[in-house]
Structures are given as structure tokens and as C-alpha cells.
Design goal:
With 270 residues, the chain is an all-alpha fold. 56% of the residues lie in helices and 2% in strands. The chain is built from 13 helices and 2 strands, in the order αααααααααααββαα. Strand 1 (174-176) and strand 2 form a beta hairpin.
Length: 270
């Protein structure tokens, strides 16, 4: 995730480390050779005593296999470093921040889709916690074969469970046959751009808060206040996105035996 860097030298180091995992032959010597410059000059660049020009940057990006979007961001960071006009440097930094903001989105790391429903039904699905919980819980074999158990284990009334099942079947989230309920493959992540995202987020936070009141020792909880800066915040967000991607893979390859909720926030106070 190269977009977490605000300094092009840090970006180069990260790209080198990433490339080394694929090919052990990637070194600063081979990089300098691929760029057509002396290793000593590249060393001066990495120490902050010299800068790359745009042609050298292009050859470096090609050598390290950067994507088009990564390359463009890399070139922009070099422009910021080389610019001697304060107003232009400020404008370039704003462009870089906008690119960072766009690239450091959850949707860019994991495959998601919003539930394909008419507006009223979409609101009902996302803003009714019982429907979401029941929907996800049906991945667990004991509930898909006997959904009535959900009323006991989730502390819902039988009518809540039945109404949720009817809603989910009507809109294609599940199919019901004689022996069990089949949960159709739907990854219904709601993006922050949705008009109902703030209300949905408050709902799921309240669900988590109510659950933590029970003080179950098996639940993992962590909260912290800290001071830092914008560059570090971007890097932390990128680390969290990489963790989300790893978590999704872990979930997809594990056997469904229990139902979990995870919330993740990185909030600025000032």
C-alpha cells in the first residue's frame, strides 16, 4: 500500500521491500542500473541530498512494477519535493491528499457490494439489526437447519425471526427448502457514501455497546487516545486496511461456527 506515504523516498523503500518478496535480485544496485544512473547518485537521493527527475522516476516505477495509479502518485510526491513555489507546493499537497483519501478506502481492499434492494427495503435491511444478524448467522449450519434456535441464542422473539426470514427469502438473500435454509452469497457492505451510513453506523455501534455490557471474557476490546500527525494517520489507516484484507481472507477460509462483530475507527478529535 504505497499511498500511505507522503515522502517519495519512503515510498521507494516500501516498493523495494515489496518487490524483494517476489525477486531476491532487487537491490539498489539493480535499481540504479535500470534507471541508467550511478548507485552513488541514487544513494544521495535516498539520503535527501539530491532529487530524481521525472524520467528517472518513470524508469524507477517501471523497474519496481508500480501500477499506473501508484506511479502517478509517486510522480506527484516528487513534484512536491522539487517545487520551489509555495503556492504550487500547497496545491500539489492537496492533490496528493485527495488521492490518498480515495485510495485508502475499504472498497479498494476488499470486494463489497450494497444489497440490491429498492430504497425502502434497503433501509429496512440495514437499519434493522435483527435482519442483519439473522442473515449472517444463517451461514452457521445449526441455524440454517433449525433457524428457530436463533430466537433463543440471539434473544429475539420467534415472530422477529420469522419476519426476518420472510424478508430475506423475498429479496433473494436466502432460499428455503424442506431440510435447511441456504444463504445466498452476498457481501452487503454499506459504503460511507450511502445516505443511510451514519444511521447504520450508529445502529451497529449500539449493538456492540449493548453486547460489551455483558462483559464476556472471550470478547476482545481495545480503545486508545494518542497524538500523532497527518502522515502517520495515513500510514495507520493503510495498515488497518491491510489488516481488513487479511481478516476477510481468514473469514472466507474458516468454518462458520459462531457470529462475531468487529468495529474499526480512526477518529480525529482536533
Amino acid at each position: 500500500m504505497l499511498f500511505k506515504f507522503n515522502n517519495y523516498r519512503d515510498l521507494i523503500r516500501a516498493a523495494m521491500e515489496s518487490r524483494k518478496r517476489i525477486s531476491e535480485g532487487v537491490t539498489f544496485q539493480s535499481l540504479a542500473l535500470g534507471m541508467g544512473i550511478q548507485k552513488s547518485y541514487l544513494s544521495q537521493v535516498m539520503k535527501g541530498k539530491a532529487n530524481l527527475n521525472i524520467d528517472q522516476a518513470y524508469l524507477l516505477a517501471e523497474h519496481l512494477g508500480m501500477s499506473d495509479s501508484e506511479s502517478q502518485y509517486f510522480f506527484l510526491l516528487i513534484e512536491i519535493e522539487r517545487s520551489g513555489v509555495a503556492a504550487r507546493k500547497k496545491q500539489l499537497k492537496l492533490q496528493a491528499k485527495q488521492i490518498q483519501s480515495e485510495q485508502l478506502k475499504t472498497e479498494n481492499k476488499i470486494k463489497t457490494n450494497v444489497a440490491d434492494l429498492p430504497s425502502v427495503e434497503q433501509h429496512q435491511y440495514y437499519l434493522n439489526p435483527s435482519i442483519q444478524l439473522i442473515h449472517i448467522a444463517l451461514s452457521i449450519p445449526k441455524y440454517s437447519s433449525n433457524p428457530k434456535l436463533l430466537s433463543v441464542d440471539l434473544n429475539f422473539s420467534e415472530s422477529q425471526v420469522e419476519e426476518a426470514l420472510q424478508f430475506l427469502e423475498k429479496h433473494g438473500f436466502i432460499s428455503i427448502n424442506a431440510s435447511k435454509i441456504v444463504k445466498e452469497p452476498v457481501n452487503a457492505h454499506l459504503p460511507p457514501s450511502s445516505e443511510i451510513y451514519p444511521a447504520w453506523k450508529n445502529q451497529v455501534r449500539l449493538m456492540a455497546q449493548n453486547k460489551t455490557v455483558l462483559n464476556d471474557p472471550s470478547n476482545y476490546q481495545f480503545s486508545v487516545f494518542f497524538t500523532s500527525n497527518e502522515a502517520a494517520r495515513s500510514r495507520i489507516q493503510a495498515i488497518l486496511l491491510e489488516a481488513i484484507e487479511s481478516i476477510q481472507k481468514e473469514v472466507q477460509t474458516s468454518e462458520p461456527e459462531n457470529l462475531y462483530q468487529m468495529n474499526m475507527d480512526l477518529i480525529g478529535w482536533l
